[in-house]
Amino acid sequence: MTDTEAKGWFAAADRDDEAELVAAVRDGDASEPRDWPRLAIEAGFVDDEAEYYDALHEVTTAATSAVVTERERADDRQLVHAVRAMDDCRRTANELAERLAEWAGTIDEDAETGVEYARDLAGRTPDPGEERVVSLAARVAALADEAEDLEAFVERETPSIAPNLAALAGPTLAARLISLSGGLEKLAKQPSGTIQVLGAEDALFAHLRGQAPSPKHGIIYTHEAVRGTRPEDRGSAARALAGKLAIAARIDHYSGDYRPELEAELADRIETIQARASDDGGEDGE
Amino acid sequence: MRTVSDLPAGVERREIGGQERLATRGEPVYGEPTDGEWRAWDPTRSKLGAMLDLEMDVGLEGGETVLYLGAASGTTVSHVADFAGPTYAVEFAARPARDLLSVAEPRPRLFPLLKDARKPATYAHVVESGIDAIVQDVATRGQARVALENRQFLADDGRLLLAVKARSEDVTRDPGDVFADVRAELEDGYEVLETRRLDEYHVDHLGIVARPR
Fold first, then answer.
1. How many Cβ atoms are within 10 Å of B95's Cβ, its own excluded?
2. pLDDT by residue (tens digit) across B112-166?
3. CA B28 to CA B42: how far, in whole Å?
4. Is B89 within 8 Å of B42 (Cβ atoms)?
5. CB-based contact (8 Å) between B96 and chain A?
6. In chain B, what are the domains?
7. Hey, what's the torsion of the CAs at A57, B131, B199, B170, to 10 degrees?
8. What chain B residue is nearest to A37 in terms of C-alpha separation?
9. Are the C-beta atoms of B185 and B145 separated by less than 8 Å?
């Protein structure tokens, strides 16, 4: 099928060059499999089949171990820091943008509030006496950029750390849930009722003091399954979503394989809950 | 009804913990009950174990070269490596692969590969041709496709031992319909020899034994 003959993992290096062999197993490919043990003996890589398999065991184990370690280093702690830093950058950018608007109002009649105005101002060549304001605007714009870069990082990394949670909640919400509970392992050990109100601690404690109704949802409110459901059914939707998120977090922590069926199950459940609006019967979600 | 002769050499039904159970000889892996060097092979935790326990004719005699797709943390693979010959274990997720490594460590003919079973080209330079049996247990959509794409590794008289998970294809459809579709797609490259629902041990799973056509 191909004009170049497929080459085996052992073709790249000598028997004793383990680093090179490990790299070949990790990153190599071939258009089709061949009788590698025989070819390795013919090529003089090893003397016999037993030696071939010994070498293969050694090298595949080392290669797998290297990739596993590498992937685990991009672990949930990194994500927690990144999502918190993202929120800090964004909050600080907004606060400074307010300060900036106040100050800029004294020198610029068209001063507006917000990060967008800060970007405009930062791009301006300052007249004498405006240097400090324009410089502050540049800081605000840079902080907002950093927040965006951090969000892109979170979106890229979350699926490899928590594939099911990221698929169900979206990468950013998944990272926030991990951050709020203090790590993937801790999230995996939370009951779904706790996940349901993560981020609504103030309301929850007000409720526990007997001053308020129980919160129906915390940060998972940002999920379309909750926000897209009419208010009287949001409790049900939040409960269903939190249940699936709890399962997803446990699979991500304890097993790590991706289960596409979770998404379909959630979609199915939410559809049922949202259908109540059109039925509009006497049915009530507790 | 005992049909011990149908089991591959190295797999036996033995009395362990007052119960007759499938067992292989090797290092214990997941705290399974043992009897001397024999360790119980729990069919509720292993689809291949269920296929053997339900007396499907998997065509294994022991000592075969095996390609195992979807090795996960190595529960089933450890038993396969106990009775088979060279065993290539493909798993895509890093976390279970960590466990797979400790399963592979005391088994010199088990080769762990952190690869995507949907992309055979990424391991065709390692896995040899003329494999005697492919065992496939991947929880992904397109399970028939994975089997077809990996057919190139299989010897002409080799066997595909496939556990189809209906819910990975489509949770909302009837498992029977899903199985019919998977089977029909499989016929593009395989002749199906036997199918059996594994519901006693694994809900909504179908065991398939096939050979390349």
1. 22
2. 999 999 999 999 999 999 999 999 999 888 999 999 999 999 999 999 999 999 9
3. 12
4. no
5. yes
6. 43-212 (3.40.50.150)
7. 90
8. B128
9. yes
